[in-house]
Amino acid sequence: MAALLVERSFIDLRSQVTVNGVCNISSSDVKCLVSDKVRAKVWCAGAVSFSLWDARTRELLKVFNIEGQIENRVDVQSGTDQPVEDEMKVKFVSTSKKEKPQGFLQRSRNAIMGAADAVRRVAKGAGAFAEDNKRTEALTLTADGMIWSGCTNGFIVQWDGNGNRLQDFQHHPYGVQCFCAFGERVYVGYLSGMVQVLDLEGNLIAGWVAHSSPVIKMAIGADYIFSLATHGGIRGWNIASPGPLDTILRSELAAKETICTRRDNFKILVGTWNVGQGRASPEGLKSWLGSQATDVGIVVVGLQEVEMGAGFLAMSAAKETVGLEGSSIGQWWLDTIGKSLDEGTTFERMGSRQLAGLLIAIWVRKNLRTHAGDIDAAAVPCGFGRAIGNKGGVGLRLRVYDRIMCFVNCHLAAHLEAVNRRNADFDHIYRTMVFSRSSNLLNTAAGMVKYLFLSLSLAFLTYLFCLVSSSGLPLVLTVAAGVTTAVQMIRGSNVGGLNAEEVKPELSDADMVVFLGDFNYRLHSISYDEARDFVSQRCFDWLREKDQLRAEMKAGKVFQGMREALIRFPPTYKFERHQAGLAGYDSGEKKRIPAWCDRILYHDNRAAAVSECSLECPVVASILQYEACMEVTDSDHKPVRCKFNVEIAHVDRSVRRQEFGEIVRSEKIRTVLEEFLRVPETIVSSNSISLQNQETAILKITNKCRKDQAVFQIICEGLSTVKEEGHGSEHRPRGSYGFPRWLEVTPAAGMIKPDQFEEVSVRHEEHQTQEDSADGIPQNWWSEDTRDKEVLLVVRVRGSRSTETKTHQVSVRHTFTAAKPARIDSKSKNSKKIHGGGSINRSDFRQLSSSSDVHDDHRYLHSP
Which intervals carry biased composition (Polar residues) (predicted)? Predict the structure, then answer.
């Protein structure tokens, strides 16, 4: 029977507002609902539109979009009306009569530019499959009566109670997932795991990383704000934080630092290899990695030129555009390296990232796995106009013992003379690398569909790309480079008033950063024969003086603040394949000068060369081994490996939690908390108000506290019709349907500053409608209800950071008088006077009345 009643209570609101087959509200999924109990309105948010309803009559009041523009019709196609085949057209650049005729290669280059533009337009306009960066994800009602909505692009929009757009702001580039409004603060949970605290004007108070995955829900309970993440983790913070309490807690915990600090030590093996599109033998992998991994806790492997060629690079760019990455050959390398490391038994692969020919992966030993997690990935293309991944960097970020480690595999610009380009590539990678979670990627199914569109246009692009790249013609190509590039665009925009140059690189926040890869720095001012002679004599000291990377680092132009162990192995480039020993150096027509192209550099928390590991300097690394595997001949480069000894100082959470509990239970902290959580003393001027027709009374609410703001809300708890004069009346509950239509209370919610007051206007509004009386006698809409009415108003008051509430009851009675004054339009607005500059001055939120033939049959129902 209960299920049947629930089914019968279903109301199809779309059918009620559909006229001649046209519906004003969107057919898209409803994302959020918010009930404004004071105004008796319900906010319904879709992806890109809002509808505002009267909670009592179910009347649709307003439909508007995210920009605040009123919409007559929301159901529009998400994609463009232009056919896909028009989007796929490739525009060739024609030459004018006055211009010099272009050759075949130049025409081919123009065709590539046109095809690349088609790729961008298809990627942007595959409408139904592209995410709208303005999609609404969260909605909340704040203490001052405003409505806040959060979008996928990180923007927050503030609305008044009537659906008028007031302002928007952004403090974080990731999507808003949830809100929690409490007192004078609004907590915002983001897709990145960040939680921010804002005031009611939208100013940022504080922010912190709450979780390693998106924050999907927040709630207030027992003086704490709790957050829930997608992985199921729940964390809580005192609602008095941030504030003076934090300073006390920090000082108390600092005194117990020695008790809570733990130091752990483990080894990291880092390997880099330009495989030259070849494949390694099991013996080569064992010599390079397997033989050295017996005593290490983490293995990091970076490969370059896993797979190359114009066709592969173009298709890789297309896949990146839709959030797809990897290849069958890249998977082969991951599986083969995993076998050499005894993956599954001894090691566990934590993550990997591939960008065209670049591949990086991390394995963690089983006994260290419980202390490692939160793997993030990033990719930055640098080839062909910062768009193609033949050059660039891929990175992985890992948390170990609550410390952040980043590993970046790079392949920088080639050729002896391209020193400045290599420096610029590093600078671009370091400044724009943005790490992201898999949840930030596009939906795989949608990505695959869009990938099909891109592949069609890229088939022609690939053919032309082969022609131009083989000719050596300069090419500037701006194909979109995937999800990470999209994030780079966000970072490059003006976020929170900061220019792109002022945005702090994410790599600068890590406790330890390791750069590895084929940096392509060569030996300068030396001939091929001279270099071969010094190598054969193992005179590496003199050769190091000719090293371009050493010179550029010394001048502070690249890899600033990073360290490298002393090189004691021969140059690792360039060799003939499958020729062992130093005689295998390139002896062909080009005779490339041997060079240390393959390098591994790092920096940790140390400000000086020698520093002790502590909570102030939590990560201290030293190099145990730095060498090349000269016996491996599967590529024209030799693989290089570096073994680090890493010491990490961190806080033992279990011990810290125990000590923190003792501090919070101390008398000192309890006294401070009681002071913060106390409800301000307030005085309400009257507990009884009597009104006649269209008469106004003033209810004065005074905040006697001199330190804290008072948050007030006025609701209607019960309604009655006075049966007989002199007899008591029974109040029937009104639930969440706001005030009766004959009563206007303005403002019904707000905040009162210390030692200030708020004047609330309580006014009778003439309204004729069909009413069900308290004694069951129906009244027709054309007859006047001449009985006296009475409502019980409850003024709820609490502090700006207190979960406790004090209530004041005010009885409001309307006495019918036969001689009524001249009728005034019920839609007219009343001016209100608010004294004591601390009160909130908001617009007049008048209830919108429905037509006279609508039954108010939900007046006495309980709210759910």
Answer: 840-852
